[in-house]
Amino acid sequence: MIRQPGSDDSTPTPEELRARVEGTREELGMEVEEAAGKTADVKEQAQAKAAELKETAQAKGAELNAQAQVKGAELKGQAQVKGAELKGQAQTRAAGAKAQAQVKAAEVLERTPQPVREKAYQVGESARTNVKPLIGFGLAVLAVCVVVSRAGRR
Length: 154
Fold this sequence. Notes:
Layout: H1 14-111, H2 114-129, H3 131-153
Helix pairs in contact: 2-3
């Protein structure tokens, strides 16, 4: 039995089936393209957002780096100023201590009797030629200083 196109029969003809299949294919193709377009848009948006965030992070990193360099230079300058100040104070104190030592040495020399000074001089001369007498001389001077210091307190 041959069916005519457009007949009221509920069974479609092969040509109608082919047309329907072709239409369905076209619809599916358009839906797939639309879905692929949306996926590409999402991917592009994600890449754009990632690039934006990367740029923001780099800018913030550069800003923080610059701030750190400024702060580092500031601290370095402060440290140099403080170091120079402390060096000056140390030099002043050292000069004062040296002056006091010279005054004390002069006082000890004045209080030391002439025979002791002569003996110390002789020991010093012999120490220049021999190290052992130098050690003895040092001990003798130390003993004299102690004696003179105790005598001066009485």
